[in-house]
Write a structure and sequence with these properties.
13 helices
């Protein structure tokens, strides 16, 4: 098959970007002709992937909603040329574009957020984000909706009922591409870990409260915070870091998991949560919130799922009980498995080309 992936940055730069990059690379290994239509690219990774890069040049906009429109319009202009459109059997977008055959939803849709907080409809940016989302889900060529978790899928179909008539499929990320880490059984201290670039949504303030509660009970606890450099955090939060907490900034996940005894992830809204499955694969137990999509897909005695509104002491107690415990890792799921599910979906889409909804 001749496959085009649409994503603004191409490369393993974040959760969504890694999902696209690894899937595209595996599809190349399976013998398909794969291209990526993007604005920016991680040159080193792209060169090793075997993916053909088509780089658009729209100037990034400062406002998030505006940037989505700028990129969307550049994609439309590119695909408006018949010679470009006919180069591909499948167009699969991970952005708010219009012309795709397949779209992947990586998080709860804008319509859902505005239903929960209707006052945000007064915000101009929110209205523009809703408009571009509606245009995406009503694209003339759309045949299939892919979601990264059951929770995300259910929300999208509930907010846009016509999507139920499309091909709908949940294809979760891989989580067995890291290696188990070795712990020193003689070590007496406990290290709590938190990892996430989007620190507010992923629950860093609550994680710090949990850490403080652990320290009150046992002063040997320390905390490592990865993924969010100090200059990306509010000054007052950095200044108020509890004793024993350390900011690492961006760091290698494998090395990070080797240094911690438990990962805490009290996210307010997490589409899947690849960091949790990565930790479990490395042999690091995880305590995470019921607002994470992974809660529907991961099963092992190495995790605890708590309501996001549970008291801090409940979280601290779960962390203390689970830290350092040995457990069986989740069943293997590789990027090859993810690509195989995409391949199956594309064949189904191509088999339905030209048929009415």
């Amino acid at each position: 098959m001749r496959i085009l992936y649409i994503v603004r940055p191409f490369g393993p730069l974040g959760g969504m970007e890694r999902y696209v990059f690894e899937t595209a690379r595996e599809m190349v290994k399976r013998g398909h002709h794969v291209s990526a239509l993007c604005r920016s690219v991680d040159e080193t990774s792209a060169a090793a992937s075997g993916v053909h890069i088509i780089q658009l040049q729209p100037k990034p906009a400062k406002r998030g909603w505006h940037d989505r429109y700028v990129f969307r319009d550049a994609v439309t202009e590119f695909l408006a040329l018949a010679v470009n459109r006919t180069l591909f059997d499948i167009i699969h977008s991970h952005e708010n574009t219009i012309e795709q055959d397949v779209t992947t939803e990586h998080g709860p849709c804008t319509a859902y957020g505005l239903r929960l907080k209707p006052w945000k409809r007064l915000d101009f940016s929110a209205r523009k984000n809703l408009a571009i989302e509606r245009q995406k889900f009503n694209g003339p060529n759309l045949k299939a909706l892919v979601s990264c978790a059951q929770r995300v899928q259910k929300i999208a179909v509930r907010e846009y009922p016509h999507l139920a008539r499309k091909i709908t499929k949940v294809i979760t990320p891989a989580y067995t591409y890291l290696e188990p880490v070795t712990k020193d059984p003689a070590k007496q201290s406990r290290v709590l870990g938190f990892m996430g670039r989007d620190w507010k949504r992923k629950g860093l303030p609550k994680a710090l409260e949990i850490f403080s509660a652990l320290r009150r009970e046992d002063s040997s606890w320390t905390m490592l915070i990865a993924g969010c450099p100090a200059d990306s955090l509010p000054t007052n939060l950095v200044r108020a870091l509890p004793e024993g907490a350390e900011l690492l900034g961006r760091t290698d996940p494998q090395k990070f998991f080797g240094r911690i005894d438990l990962l805490v992830h009290p996210a307010n809204d997490e589409p899947f949560g690849m960091v949790m499955s990565e930790a479990l694969t490395c042999g690091v137990p995880v305590v995470f919130s019921d607002q994470c999509g992974a809660a529907d897909h991961l099963r092992t005695e190495g995790l605890r799922i708590l309501p996001i509104g549970a008291p801090v002491m409940d979280w601290a107690r779960a962390c203390a009980e689970l830290a350092g415990k040995a457990f069986s890792t989740p069943p293997s799921r590789t990027w090859s498995d993810v690509a195989a599910e995409h391949e199956e979906l594309y064949r189904l889409v191509l088999g339905r080309q030209g048929t009415p909804d």
